[in-house]
Specification:
The protein is α/β, with parallel strands linked by helices and 201 residues long. The chain has seven helices and nine strands; from the N terminus they run ββββαβαβαβααβαβα. Strands 6-5-7-8-9 form a five-stranded parallel sheet, sandwiched between helices. A hairpin with a 6-residue loop joins strand 1 and strand 2. The radius of gyration is 17 Å and the shape is globular.
Length: 201
């Protein structure tokens, strides 16, 4: 479960087995030490299970991944935007996989250890997000999930929390899409450092 401090806006992943029972719980932010109250929504019926069970790694064309590569998945319906994001990530040293459909995107998530996923805020994109949300806790924490859309301004922490992503980036971000992607990666690095520090305590 992803939680965000309402005081300092830092976000954290809380393992499902650590989430208290009940409709709400309190936690103290490890960064600013302020107390927060979290309300837990009742789980919805899983209507997508039958749709996702038939997805397997055979739906993902094989990709050669050299040792030490950082692997990024791009699942965007707009071809021009997908190419723009892919080219920039390659420039930044990522090995990029571009999935042509949500089904292919889900298959890649099952087949590879991905460090970055950029997905669109749409119905097909939410199918990909559902697959990401099924990942084991540690694997999910090691993946930076960036949602690209137009429902809110970039880096709105509440929207990111509700949708279960690390960052929400507006597709027409005023500072430029490339700069916003860099910022999303910087924020994720800060988040990972907090988790690593907590694990080593």
């Amino acid at each position: 479960m992803r939680i965000t401090c309402e005081h300092c806006q830092r976000s954290f992943n809380l393992p499902e087995d650590k989430v208290p029972q009940g409709e709400r719980f309190r936690f103290s932010c490890p960064v600013c030490q302020e107390t927060n109250q979290i309300y837990i929504a009742k789980p919805e019926e899983k209507t997508e299970e039958t749709k996702t069970d038939d997805v397997n790694t055979m739906d993902a064309p094989p990709v050669q991944v050299p040792p030490g590569s950082r692997l990024a998945l791009v699942v965007l319906g707009a071809e021009r935007t997908a190419q723009r994001v892919g080219v920039y990530l390659q420039y930044r040293g990522w090995q990029v996989i571009e999935a042509q459909s949500s089904r292919m995107g889900k298959a890649y998530i099952q087949a590879y250890h991905l460090e970055l996923v950029v997905v669109e805020d749409s119905d097909p994109g939410r199918e990909v997000l559902a697959e990401i949300h099924r990942l084991p806790g540690r694997e999910r924490r090691e993946m930076n999930c960036v949602l690209l859309g137009d429902r809110t301004a970039s880096f709105d922490s509440l929207t990111a929390f509700v949708l279960g992503v690390n960052s929400y980036v507006h597709q027409d971000d005023s500072q430029g899409l490339e700069t916003a992607l860099d910022q999303a990666q910087d924020l994720f690095h800060q988040y990972r450092q907090l988790w690593l520090a907590a694990e080593n305590q």
